[in-house]
Give the backbone structure.
Amino acid sequence: GLGKIKDAVKIVAQNHPDQPPIDIHNITHFKKDLKIKQLLKQANAIGCFYVESPAMRMLLKKLQVETYLDLVAASSVIRPGVASSGMMREYILRKREPARRINISPILLNIMPDTFGVMVYQEDVIKVAHYFGGLTLGEADMLRRGMSGKYRSKNEFIAVRNQFFKNCEIAGKDPVFTKEIWRQIESFAGYAFAKGHSASYAIESYQSLYLKAYYPIEYMVAVINNFGGYYNTELYINEARLNGADIQAPCVNQSQWACVVKGKSVFIGLQFLYGLEQNTAKRLLNNRLAHGPFLNFDDFVKRLPISLDQISILIKINAFRSFNPNKRELLWEAHTKLEPKQQKQPTVNLFDISPKSYHIPCLNSIMLENAFDEIELLGFPLCSPFDLLEMTVPEKLYAKDLPNFINQNIIVTLYLFYKIFN
């Protein structure tokens, strides 16, 4: 997450040299920023640290998160301990329905007013154990550590547990309610965040959200160059496109090792080409840096020692499109100029004698072939996947339009983005 933020700031400075530098640590301003509030409320957080997963974005929408403290709480309430105990659902309901707060135990509401009497943070365990259960602060902390397995003696932990119930009984508390409070404490079992942990996560989330709000293309490129987050590269490419980016295939004269932004054009980096060797890419970039852009296909072949299989990758991804957009013709031409085995030295033509003339038949590429090449070499097509359907989608609507069709039968065509760990 920090790598994305750091790289995004650099990319913005390169793509917008006339603008003042970004103060990425101006969190006070970010907390008040209306664009960031809107992103949070709409859960438009793809690519943003800790708030981009489907579960977290769903939680943001349910909570209608707009403030820093709301986000801090959301960062912790999503944790397994809070979620599995039912406290996450109760927190959402109390946040959205003020009427539900009337019947909350006054003791719990007084202990945890910011979270409507719901235990959300690890510190809440200590507070409840101390103020509700009558334990000393030392005993309460022992209870917290015991829940996470960090206790020295099991007997000590059992003794503290028994003391909790004994104190509640002496205080005349309802035993059923006491058992419920203990169940909630037990559910944490080491899975809750400390509030400081959640607060620091929320700071990084705000930095990511600021960059996405004001520099979405540059930020998405930084996300892609850092190999994403919760999702795979294709989804972040699509997110950049949705934010106005013109996604370009790798180009021998424009691309770098990583993705680069030029205005609104994003040139995919050479490192994302399956099968392209790092040494090949390094020689290409060093040659271009030393001798300038390649003038044409012949100039590329003369200047760069490259094997047939490596240049075929560049041709198939259409990296020579500025010279000759017909990559099928270039594949034939490459076979006439290169040996199948890797050349040790670049081709040298001392007398610049034209090769024997030959005629290549018309070899036009179609969109489907290009898409298959892109899927093979990048893992995804650069065109819309819906353009590859044999059937024609009759009407283009989007998920945001679904509320207009309540109680109606509709057919939905979906494109599945896999999570990165699948």
About this structure: Residues 195-214 form the longest helix (20 residues). The two ends are 20 Å apart (CA to CA). The mean pLDDT is 87.
